[in-house]
Amino acid sequence: MVKDLILSRRTRLEFVNAADDARLKLAAEELEGLVKRRFASKNAPDQEVKVFFEIKENAKGFSLKALENALVFTAPTTLEILYAVYDFAEEYLGYCFFEPGIDHLDVVGGKVVLPAGKYAIRNRVPALKIRGLVQEFPFSDEDYIIADWMVKNKLNFLQTWLKYYEDITPDLQDYFDLRGIDIAGGGHNFSFLIPGEKYAATHPEFFAERNGERIKPSSAKSALLLSEQLCTTNPELREELVKNIIEYSKTHPRIKSLSLSPNDGFGWCECKECSKLYDKNEKGELYSLSEHVHQANRIYHQLVKYVNTRLREENCTLTLGFGAYINYCRPSEGMTVDKGMRSALANYWRCINHKINDPECPVNSHYAEDHKRWMKVKNGGSFGVYEYFMGVNFYISLPMIHTDDVFDEVKFYQEIGSDGLWTQFHVPHWHVYGINFYCMANALYSKKRNAVQKRMWNALFGKDVAEGKRFIKKVHQLVHSAGACHIPYPYSLFSRTDLADYVKLNEMAKVLCKKLPRNEYRQALVLWTEYLVRFKTFFDDYHAGVAGLKELENFRKWANEKCAGRRILRFYSFNRYTEEIGKMISEGKKWLHFGLDWEDAYVIKHTQTIFKK
Questions:
Q1: Prediction pTM value
Q2: CB-based contact 75:59 (threshold 8 Å)
Q3: Do strands 209-210 and 213-214 pair parallel, antiparallel, or not at all (unpaired)?
Q4: In angstroms, rounded to a whole number, what is the distance separating the alpha carbons of residues 451 and 118?
Q5: Given CB 3.0 to 4.6 Å as the disulfide criterion, which of 8, 161, 264, 575 pairs with 187?
Q6: What DSSP string runs through 406-442?
């Protein structure tokens, strides 16, 4: 009779075929470490369990089978063997890889019984092939824990700005490569590829013409570069872009993909040739924050198509990325996503109270249709989704609970033929948005919603899981109390919710923390909810005419002192945002958002239209 496989303190793993491959060696080291920590064996183990890593190219996904005294991991690639090790650790050993740098473990000791001859994991495949994060900050030692979290959650793509790609050390690049993570050079990079300080004096014709004059670009201006684009029809400019991209690939031989993306915002060229590619009367739409400007898809897409063709003619193997965003969300007539091209539609200022494919949402329904349009023009290239599961705008830690909807949205993207999904993120706000990131990663690998959430809630709340889930539900209810549609900038949330609900959240967080006072996550929830109470209070008092610079500075001081060292706020963004509020107050200008007239106009328009539906 075949006996079940029992793992315990007695277990010693013997790896049969992991020594000759770096990634299989990593899988073996990880599995051995995870098993040892799980059972906390202090004595010399005396039960030998053989571990086989089998690479079968025709295997459907990765699988794990238990034998009487063996574990057999099977996958078409070594990377998927590594994925299988981590899934085994979460689903059978009691781990939860919720946040970078910390592996939650529910129980130590005891036994794990695996029925012999049966699959513990079978034929697991991803829902989307490109699964990742967007890093909008410089590389540092923190990226080691980011890469570790990514592979444990089966993410394989990291998009960063080209200016940050410069900072990756060979050791860090090796670390990402070993874990199967492609680092792509992206970001709004017209100004990086054609820097004003290099070309403005000698080639002013490379830059956009506005109101009859060429702009005078400067990298010293705001990083948003809201009105600095290139003259995309200029033949010499196009060739210079091709030359610079090829040179960049040669000086950075490990880069596999590079985006050609406009500077953030608008400001497209109005010269005679460029003007032929758009109709000033053909405006954008409310959902994409572009009804005040003309559509720029033709002027942009013709440039992308040209550059991609030239790269192939020059035998450049880089994947060329491009963006679909604001007033270039939709494919222009004749635009195709050809071989060697990759792009993503950015769901910018999306409604977070509706799913992306909800036909009743006056915002998201348009984005869903845009995604479908792009799927129809794929021609050998790939197209995905650029998301904002960190609150969409400014990283200022407003509540966004996307733990359920992300599973349905990934399913929608899978059904229409999307290739991938990646989201902006920051480690410093993980205790606010980490639940979104963790659920997203698992949804992208076809994991079951209930099992994923059960593991996550248990890791975060332990014996108090019921109370913890009530807290999360209350956060979700608060956001939805703002109205059927909600775009998560402060005015949308705070103008339509009650302070009492924030106070109640803070009280619930304190009760949770009192039960386990040394728990960092619970401590963070207390501070985060107090942050929301203080932000909401300032908002209400400002609009009541009883709060100004003094009250704003008190709020800023509290946040910077009390939230320091916690994964609650990205301080650079918070301070930048609140500095702008202070500037508006000082200048006697009404605070609606970030002090940009065109953005404020949309805030007002939203209150008059979509928020009333």
A1: 0.97
A2: yes
A3: antiparallel
A4: 20
A5: 161
A6: HHHHHHHHHHHT--EEEEE--GGGHHHHHHHHHHHHH
Distances (CA, A) of 36 to 13, 29, 306, 485, 598: 10, 11, 56, 49, 57
Length of the chain: 613
Average pLDDT per run of 10 along the chain, which is 613 residues long?
A: 86 90 97 95 83 96 96 98 98 98 94 95 98 96 98 98 93 98 94 94 96 83 66 98 97 95 93 93 94 96 98 97 97 96 97 97 98 98 97 88 98 98 97 98 97 98 98 98 96 98 98 97 98 98 98 98 96 96 97 94 96 79
Instruction: Report CA Rg, the chain.
Output: 26
Token pair for 14? 């013997």
The tokens for 424 are 């902006």
Backbone angles phi, psi at 479, to 5 degrees: -60, -45
308, two tokens: 């991609």
Q: How far is CA 490 from the centre of its chain?
A: 21
Question: Where does residue 536 rank: exposed (0-12), middle (13-18), buried (19+ CB within 10 A)?
Answer: buried
Question: Can you give the three-state secondary structure of 121-153, one letter per residue?
Answer: EEEECCCCCEEEEEECCCCCCHHHHHHHHHHHC
Residue in the structure block whose two tokens are 């989704």: 385
